[in-house]
């Protein structure tokens, strides 16, 4: 970065794609491509020059920030998965008027909820189905986060202002939700988002569905899209600050003092907060050494003492290798955009799926040389990646004729060399421990 570019807040944006991206047909009958749509909709990356590196951008996320006011109503889903039973919370965006009215009617003995969030009544949920054609975004938050996160609300705000419907799939135990089994979320666990999307397809059969994930949620979303392949019900998806290669990111995180003692320790502390909140359930898992867990300070130590015995992984390295989404990129068959900053201290540049994206004409990777982890703060406020994500999704929804595009490309991407890759299966069988 030159002195002048830093002074002006100019970050260099790079797009990586397959040499011959799949053609997409517009609603006017013209042909375009995913890179063309992205470059014509995503604004130049102009960041706050006072936050001039990835560490400052990342640490700035910890400052108090009210963010845009988004109102939610929460529905608790009973999992239909035989291996992953329990419940999970999905928060649906509602209007300010509906949210404020619901808050006044909420009973005093209602479970603790995040700010501007109330529960659906049984009658409200029974009446939620609609035949409207509004586009709908399904969002997945980062590690220990939830629908209340500012970065997530900054992304949803311009979409809902443009008439989109939206919901957030909260990780189990996150966003003040309760867990009814001993298991928290898992970076490989795509079951809850899959069930949510199936439910949305039934409730809103005419709505085009899109996905966006942030950090760990981006990893889960990428795995989901890869698992679904050509049958993915989403029209397009965006992954922001995805730690694509979890094993590489873990090594890089422990390699530096800041990585280990600031970032890993902060994430470990947040996870321990979830443990203490749900201790009575989590400690039912056979094999959890509570004494060792209570001494944990870092992210990888929590994963070693909780995720490994919970899911049957022998080491945290095995968990990361099985959960990472870098290989899933090769199996994606919908327009898919990844947005990362190359100076992200958590989602390391060393783990970016550059070569995988080059082999899959359905995917595109947008990187900036500056921005940190879920940062990319612009001068005057707001995050660039949130603006970029919203602008891209609106452009795709407004311009692409997906039915005609599928006819042109073919659901399986025939004739495209992707190294023989046709899917991805986990390397380990998930073993449920405890009861």
UniProtKB/TrEMBL annotation:
Reactions catalysed, as given in the entry: an aliphatic alcohol + acetyl-CoA = an acetyl ester + CoA
Pfam families assigned to the protein according to its UniProt record, in alphabetical order: Abhydrolase_1
Signal peptide: none
Subcellular localization, as worded in the UniProt entry: Peroxisome
Keyword hit for Transferase: yes
InterPro entries: AB_hydrolase_1 (IPR000073), AB_hydrolase_4_sf (IPR050960), AB_hydrolase_fold (IPR029058), ABHD4 (IPR012020)
Active site: 215 (charge relay system), 344 (charge relay system), 373 (charge relay system)
Family the entry assigns: Belongs to the AB hydrolase superfamily. AKT2 hydrolase family.
Function, in words: Displays enzymatic activity both for medium-chain fatty acid (MCFA) ethyl ester synthesis and hydrolysis (esterase activity). MCFA are toxic for yeast and this enzyme could thus be involved in their detoxification by esterification.
GO molecular function, one term: monoacylglycerol lipase activity
Enzyme class, spelled out: transferase
GO biological process assignments: medium-chain fatty acid biosynthetic process; medium-chain fatty acid catabolic process
SUPFAM superfamilies according to UniProt: alpha/beta-Hydrolases
Enzyme Commission (EC) number: 2.3.1.84
Keywords on record: Hydrolase, Peroxisome, Transferase, Virulence
GO CC terms of this entry: peroxisome
UniProt name for this protein: alcohol O-acetyltransferase
Domain (AB hydrolase-1) ranges: 135-242
């Amino acid at each position: 970065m030159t002195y002048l570019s830093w002074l002006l807040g100019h970050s260099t944006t790079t797009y990586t794609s397959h040499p011959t991206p799949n053609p997409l047909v517009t609603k006017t009958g013209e042909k375009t491509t995913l890179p063309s749509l992205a470059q014509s909709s995503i604004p130049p990356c102009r960041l706050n020059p006072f936050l001039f590196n990835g560490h400052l951008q990342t640490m700035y996320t910890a400052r108090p920030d009210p963010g845009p006011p988004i109102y939610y109503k929460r529905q608790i889903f009973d999992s239909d998965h035989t291996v992953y039973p329990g419940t999970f919370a999905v928060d649906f965006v509602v209007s300010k008027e509906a949210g404020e009215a619901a808050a006044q009617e909420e009973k005093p003995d209602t479970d603790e909820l995040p700010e501007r969030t109330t529960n659906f009544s049984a009658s409200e949920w029974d009446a939620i189905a609609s035949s409207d054609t509004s586009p709908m975004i399904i969002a997945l938050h980062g590690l220990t986060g939830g629908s209340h996160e500012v970065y997530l609300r900054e992304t949803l705000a311009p979409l809902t202002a443009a008439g989109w419907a939206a919901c957030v799939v909260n990780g189990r135990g996150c966003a003040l939700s309760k867990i009814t089994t001993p298991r928290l979320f898992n970076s490989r666990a795509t079951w809850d988002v899959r069930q949510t999307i199936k439910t949305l397809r039934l409730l809103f059969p005419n709505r085009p569905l899109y996905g966006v994930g942030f950090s760990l949620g981006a990893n889960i979303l990428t795995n989901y899209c890869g698992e679904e392949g050509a049958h993915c019900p989403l029209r397009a998806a965006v992954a922001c600050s995805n730690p694509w290669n979890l094993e590489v990111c873990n090594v890089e995180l422990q390699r530096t003092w800041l990585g280990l003692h600031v970032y890993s320790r902060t994430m470990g502390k947040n996870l321990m907060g979830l443990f203490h909140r749900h201790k009575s359930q989590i400690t039912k898992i056979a094999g959890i050494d509570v004494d060792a867990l209570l001494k944990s300070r870092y992210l990888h130590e929590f994963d070693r003492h909780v995720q490994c015995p919970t899911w049957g992984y022998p080491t945290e390295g095995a968990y990361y290798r099985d959960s990472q989404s870098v290989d899933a990129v090769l199996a994606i068959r919908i327009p898919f955009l990844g947005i990362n900053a190359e100076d992200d201290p958590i989602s390391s540049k060393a783990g970016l799926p550059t070569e995988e994206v080059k082999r899959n004409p359905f995917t595109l990777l947008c990187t900036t040389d500056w921005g940190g982890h879920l940062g990319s703060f612009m001068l005057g406020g707001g995050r660039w990646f949130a603006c970029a994500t919203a602008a891209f999704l609106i452009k795709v929804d407004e311009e692409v004729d997906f039915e005609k595009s599928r006819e042109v490309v073919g659901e399986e991407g025939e004739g495209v060399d992707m190294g023989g890759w046709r899917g991805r299966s986990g390397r380990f069988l998930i073993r449920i421990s405890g009861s």
